[in-house]
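Need tokens for this chain, all 450 residues.
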Amino acid sequence: MKDTIAAISTALGVGAISIIRVSGEDSIEIVSKIWQGKDLRKVPTHTIHYGFIKDQEEIIDEVLLTIMKAPKTFTKEDVIEINSHGGIATTNRILELLLLNGCRLAEPGEFTKRAFLNGRIDLIEAEGVMDLISAKTDKSRNLALHQMTGQVSSLIHDLRNRLVDVISNIEVNIDYPEYEDIEVVTNEKMKETINYLKEEIQNILKKSETGSLIKEGIKTVIVGKPNVGKSSLLNRLLEEEKAIVTDIAGTTRDIVEGDVSIDGILLHMVDTAGIRKTEDKVESIGVKKSLEWIEKADLVLFVFNNQEEITTEEKEILSKIGKKPTILIINKNDLESHLELPELSLPIIRISALQNDGIDDLRKQIKTLFHLEEIEQSDYTYLSSARSISLLKKCQNIVESIEEGLKQELPVDMLEIDLKNIWNLLGEITGETYTEELVDAIFSRFCLGK
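Here are the structure tokens for all 450 residues:
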């Protein structure tokens, strides 16, 4: 953390401007070596200056330089951002000069990592930074912003503060039993705390299902036998001709993908190869991958041909779907029907992909199936990362263990051990308790320069 880091913070390529970011205690000294303009040691913090980047006597670029002095910066270190003209050659040359004059190339996510390690943000806020960068819808953007501003973190802090009060009381009761003015934590008092924890954790986890949906989207797979109109359906939902459509069965041999937004929730659409028994080696690989996709999907769109009777292969697929959210789609509804589906408690939508009929009904059914209309527009205080949710579920399991201990009337000091475990797990969510391996793993997912 003592060295000074530098990286390109904008996408590398042709553009109007590029931003090269520098952070560390030697930022001003290093940048001054390649800067021609006002003396950076004397200018006020949080100001922008016009000048040139030079390599000895050679002018590299005409730039605007922003200087931000510690501690009121993102990393709580001295930070300088050089706004150069866009372009690979110019941007790389400036970065090269910074590295030659004492900077180290930043690791992926290292600027945000320093912000966390220096106490500027917690882990939930740090993950919100990355989520904001990758957000593709307004809902996911709002979710990330609520994480970044600490509104989600406050949920966890409230739980930890409640636990601290109880744990400290228990410690005083054990160490100083002669203090009569300190409230004694009895099993009844413990039950109050556990009931509160249980209810709050359940509420957060319930909301987090929505948060995960907003952030990750819905993995949606379109399956069915060859030539039932899977690719046509994908094209209609995407509103573009992404998949090749022909009358030849087995045209789609590999996976075709695309994203579509429904009420601000992304559907990651996958059009699979037609499922049937085949001697074609390439097509059989595609069929195998289709079955694998059914296992991984959050939603299955099972397409049938209205003109044809149901096949043995289709019945087998229906048996493998199990309880996974599934919509049965009968395509070519404008033609004479020869299809008889077995009695199933699954929603059925009739469409004509060729005539773009019934597609809106399908969208409405997806919204109903995932309760998309019930997602609060104003409340985005959800946990959304798998890491945070898994830790909170561990807390939930420990709460259940304490409940069992209370039923068996175990002493409060034995149950305190479990309370401390919950307190530590909640700390892992926000980063108040962490390991170096955890921090390295989280920030390695960030882009370079962030």
